[in-house]
């Protein structure tokens, strides 16, 4: 059940009523690496869905150790892990082996397209692998045309639509619709927030919520993951 924090937050009806709605732990920077506390905070938002964001390699290694030693099954119905994008030192083959060793309760492993060096190495992840469209800071993985070769090489991979990333590429959001036209059948979940001028995730602004609505109405069958704190009450 979604907590009262969702019901009371000043977000629009489409988002607050969506099922399932959850949060990413990536914006809880003050708790980074403290997985017990991060999961507790995520449960305050929703027991339905979560993305455990291990954005740096040390965080990811810590998450792997925590999942292996915690001895309990997390209560979320949808569990996504965000693979590391920063401070990478592991050879790609070893990173993939560690991704493959994640518990079977993990529904999705989100990987940034620009971090993939040899796509074939990720094929054993099958449909658990989820590729996310990138923002305007990145050199590739931003549009359907740039993602198509990766999906061709990884035919079982899923897709995570990051709506504000798509907006940073095309403010009209036609690009977001093109991504759904191309990869909608692969859609596994949605990333949702607003972006500041440096493309950092910030709480969803009312104007963006209104602009995103036609896109979100095409994504009703998958979890929506908030990548920033809920707007203030």
Quote the beta fraction.
15-25%
Structural shape: globular
Q: Count every helix, treating DSSP H or I runs of 4 or more residues as helices.
A: 9
The CATH superfamily turns out to be Divalent-metal-dependent TIM barrel enzymes
The residue ranges in which pLDDT falls below 50 over 5 or more consecutive positions are 1-11
- The H/E string reads HHEHEHEHEEHEHHEEEHE
Q: In terms of structural class, how would the helical and strand content be classed?
A: alpha/beta
CATH class: Alpha Beta
Oligomer: single chain
CATH topology: TIM Barrel
How many individual β-strands?
10
Mean pLDDT: 91
Cα radius of gyration in angstroms? 17 Å
Helix content: 25-40%
Overall number of domains: 1
Strand order within the widest sheet? Answer: 1-2-3-4-5-6-7-10
* Cα distance spanning the termini: 20 Å
The major sheet is characterized as: 8 strands, parallel, barrel
The CATH architecture would be Alpha-Beta Barrel
List the helices and strands and how they pair.
Layout: H1 4-8, H2 13-16, E1 21-24, H3 35-45, E2 49-53, H4 57-69, E3 78-82, H5 92-100, E4 108-111, E5 129-132, H6 144-153, E6 158-162, H7 163-169, H8 174-183, E7 187-192, E8 194-195, E9 201-202, H9 206-216, E10 224-226
Parallel strand pairs: 1-2, 1-10, 2-3, 3-4, 4-5, 5-6, 6-7, 7-10
Antiparallel strand pairs: 8-9
């Amino acid at each position: 059940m979604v907590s009262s924090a969702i019901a009371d937050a000043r977000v629009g009806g489409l988002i607050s009523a969506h099922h399932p709605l959850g949060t990413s732990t990536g914006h809880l920077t003050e708790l980074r690496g403290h997985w017990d506390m991060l999961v507790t905070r995520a449960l305050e938002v929703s027991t339905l869905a979560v993305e455990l964001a291990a954005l740096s390699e040390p965080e990811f290694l810590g998450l792997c150790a925590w999942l292996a030693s915690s001895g309990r099954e997390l209560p979320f119905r949808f569990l996504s892990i965000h693979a590391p994008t920063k401070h990478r030192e592991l050879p790609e083959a070893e990173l993939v082996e560690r991704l493959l060793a994640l518990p079977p309760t993990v529904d999705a492993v989100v990987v940034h397209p620009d971090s993939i060096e040899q796509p074939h190495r990720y094929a054993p992840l099958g449909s658990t692998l989820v590729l996310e469209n990138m923002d305007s800071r990145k050199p590739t993985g931003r549009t359907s045309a740039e993602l198509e070769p990766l999906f061709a090489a990884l035919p079982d991979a899923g897709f995570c639509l990051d709506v504000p990333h798509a907006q940073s590429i095309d403010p009209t959001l036609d690009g977001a619709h093109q991504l759904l036209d191309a990869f909608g059948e692969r859609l596994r979940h949605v990333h949702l927030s607003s972006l500041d001028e440096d493309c950092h995730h910030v709480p969803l602004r009312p104007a963006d919520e209104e602009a995103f609505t036609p896109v979100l109405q095409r994504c009703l069958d998958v979890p929506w993951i908030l990548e920033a704190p809920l707007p203030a009450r």
